[in-house]
Amino acid sequence: MVIVDVVLETYDAVEFTAWPIAEPSSDRLLALSGRLSPAEVGTAMAIIFSYNSIPVTHAADLTEAHLEQRLAEAGRLIAPGGLRFRDTTTGVSVSPGCCCGLENWRDWWSVARGQEIWLGHDPMPHLTHAGHIIQLRQDVDATPPSSPIEITRSELTSLLATAQQHLTEFLGLARHWATATTPALADRLVSALDQYLMITVAE
Prior knowledge:
The protein is an alpha+beta fold. The protein is built from 5 helices and 7 strands; from the N terminus they run ββααββαβββαα.
């Protein structure tokens, strides 16, 4: 059985002290869903603030003006990560490569339509189409070749619906977290997350 996780890389949360965050996992990936603890939501928000160069030394210092200034300068919010696929039968896992962005997670809908997308590098994840079967490999340059995960296009469509559900649940937790931690910023922050990570918009 193949399952999907929406993951963030947690390297940008190292030494973050503006609010409580969780201890990083050994693989430095945080799976977003409705099951996150408040500290894990804090980690996700720390990553987003740090990765987008939004300065914050304490949560009480944050204002909507800080966020609006950054959005005006960059025109978007981005986040390191993407979709991780795991085969629970074989134990094979394919995670997004370096420089892959969670904001591009909807590109996977193109894969379900028979196209290919860039999945990051170092190592170089790769996908190939064989009819209606999609093969995912963690490192296309591995010797011997890494074991693939195989899914059909229809299975990928179902997995993408699950990924959107995970993101929607995370957005709800983010609202609770922001209301408690940065109340003056809560509505705008959640709106920006939804808009730029393309969470609730229909495909």
